[in-house]
Amino acid sequence: MDQVYNNILLLLSTPIYAIIIPIEILLSNYRHKRFYSWKETLMNVYLNGLNTGLDLLLRVIVGLFVLNFFYKYHVINNWNPIIYWTILLFAQDLLFWVEHYVDHSCRLFWAVHVTHHSSPEFNLTTGFRSSVLMPVYKYLYFIPLVLIGFNPIDAIFMYSVTQIYGILIHTQHIRKLPRWIEYIFVTPSHHRVHHASNIPYLDKNMGMTFIIWDRIFGTFAEEMPEEIPHYGITKPLENPHHPIRIITHEWQEIGKDLKKKVPIATKLRYLISAPGWSHDGSSKTSRELQRESETGLKG
């Protein structure tokens, strides 16, 4: 069964790398949009390679071992196949939203995830600009799935399928889709908002497949014509193509904050609070920036 899943994933992903990305590059150059640059594209490939290697290792050592342990205690085992795969799709996507929300809300996890957001470009190769260390913990989010009764292999397969969809929404060539699609699914428009560093767009649209979770939990933002997305992070890197610093820069910033002469409780907040939190207001979280922006507009 594992080989069957691998063949399906290969069948789904190969056209992206062999056809869709080359077409987008050609369109970008033809329209003089400059959505791609060699340095950023090579950095995306480099980060994806590191992530894939670590993921393949941990998928066997940590992922399947841990998930198979918890699967022994699952509570449901008589699923109808259609119901099984439908619920798995929605449940896995909801847990991805939770993981993604945590990545943006806790600085320790943001230090891992920020790599994915660090590019000032937004194109299909940005979709596999991977957070290198994420495989260390991402499989822990699947534990509720296997406890319910989903086979670990099936859960990992569904995650991989939705990740392929997640690559396709990293594009600027598709503007708006029909309203019903925009209401239910994550679209390129929604994901452009997610990758933007504009204050109104920060920490919005966390979903991978369905945008309904963001609508339910209050993290949804519409792409606005008057607010053109500017991609990347709020504080651009001094050396964005350094092969090590691109992965470790936020950890280095955390180290600087932990050296400050503040109480232990304050040091702990520098680890677990939202990115941008500071005890003296020298830097601000996305919510603080958004509140200030809204107050300024009202004033």
Topology diagram in text:
Blueprint: H1 2-30, H2 38-71, H3 81-105, H4 107-117, H5 143-148, H6 152-168, H7 179-184, H8 188-195, H9 212-217, H10 245-258, H11 264-272, H12 286-298
Q: pLDDT under 50 segments (min length 5)?
A: none
Silhouette:
globular
What is the end-to-end distance? 61 Å
pLDDT averaged residue by residue? 93
What does this 3D model show about the protein?
By secondary structure, the chain is mostly helical. It has one domain (2-217). Helix content is 60%, strand content 0%. The protein has helices at 2-30, 38-71, 81-105, 107-117, 143-148, 152-168, 179-184, 188-195, 212-217, 245-258, 264-272, 286-298. Helix 1 runs parallel beside helix 6, helix 3 (81-105) packs across helix 4 and helix 4 (107-117) packs antiparallel against helix 10.
Which descriptors would you attach to this protein?
mainly alpha; single chain; 12 helices; globular; 299 residues
Task: Give a quick rundown of the structure.
This protein is mainly alpha-helical. Helices cover 60% and strands 0% of the residues.
